[in-house]
Amino acid sequence: MRFTEIGQQLRAYRLESGLRAEEIAARLGVSRAALYRYEKGEVIKLDTIQRLAELLKISPLSLLGIGVEYYNRPIGYYERLRQTEETADQILQLFGPVCYLTTSDSYDAALAEVFDEAASQAGANRAAMRSVSEQVMGILAARKRMYSSRRPGIIAMICEGDIQHLLDQGVVASIPVSDRARRMCRQVAVGEVEHIASLMEAEPMGLQFGLLTGATPTTAFKILRARDRVSLAINPFRPDTHPSAQTGVAMITSADEAVAAHQRVAEANWRDALKGPAGATRIRQMLAASGQR
C-alpha cells in the first residue's frame, strides 16, 4: 500500500467532512498527533482504515486509492487536486473562462474579498463560512506556489461563452455582494481576460491556450499526467460559487477507460479551438465589444 497517498486522501476527506482533527482523533481513540502522522504517510493499520472510512462515510477502497474518489464539497476536491498537481508533469484542462494556476494575484484577492463579504452576511453561519473560505484560499495559494516552482506543462481550453459571462458579470458572479465589490469583480475579470489574450499571443513555453468558440462544453475536467500515474479530475464546482456550497459531486479516478474517454473529448475540442494569435484576436474583439478596450 502507498501510505503517503493514503495519508493525502485522508487529509482531503477530513477537510471534506468538515470535522476537526481533534474530533476524528477522539472518535478513533488516537491522538491528534497520530492522525497528522497518518496524513503525512505513516503506516496505518487496515482496521484503522476501516474505522476512518466509517467515520468519514466513504468506502475503504476510496481511502486506499482504489476506484473513484468522490467529493461533495469544493474544499476536499481542491485539496486532492493540489496533491495531484504536486507530481503532475502535464495538465490538460477543459473548463471555464480561466486557467486558475495562471491567474493573477488580483484574482485571488477578489475571491477572498467576496468570500469574506458573503460570510459577513451569513448570520449564525458566519464563522463556519469564514473558516472554510480561509482554508480554501490557503489551498489555492499553495497550488499557485507549486505551479510557480515546478512549472508543469499546461494545455488549457477555455470557452468563449464563459469568457463573455465573466466580462458581463465579473468574477464570483453568483454571490451577492455590494455594488463596490461587484465593480471590483468586473475590473478583475477584464484584467484576467486581457492576461489570457497576452499569453495566447506570447505562447510561452509549456503553456498553451485554446479558445472554444462553439457550444459551451457540458463537462469540466482535467487530466493530470505524472511519471507513474494519470489522473482524471471531474469538477462540477464553478469558480463563481462559494466554497461552502454543495452544488455537485466531484470525482477523481485513474481508471484507464475513463481517462481515455475524456482524452478523446479533449483532443476533439483542441482540434477546433482557436490558438495563438488567432485566439488572442478573438478575445480582444470580445473585450472591444464589451466596451473594455
In short:
This protein is an alpha+beta fold. A hairpin with a 3-residue loop joins β5 (221-226) and β6. It has 12 helices and 8 strands.
Q: How would you explain this protein's 3D organization?
A:
The structure is a single chain. By secondary structure, this protein is an alpha+beta fold. The protein is 56% helix and 14% strand. It is built from twelve helices and eight strands. It has an eight-stranded mixed sheet, sandwiched between helices. Strand 5 and strand 6 form a beta hairpin. Helix 2 packs across helix 3 and helix 6 runs parallel beside helix 8. The longest helix has 25 residues. The protein is globular, with a radius of gyration of 20 Å. The model has no long low-confidence stretch (mean pLDDT 90).
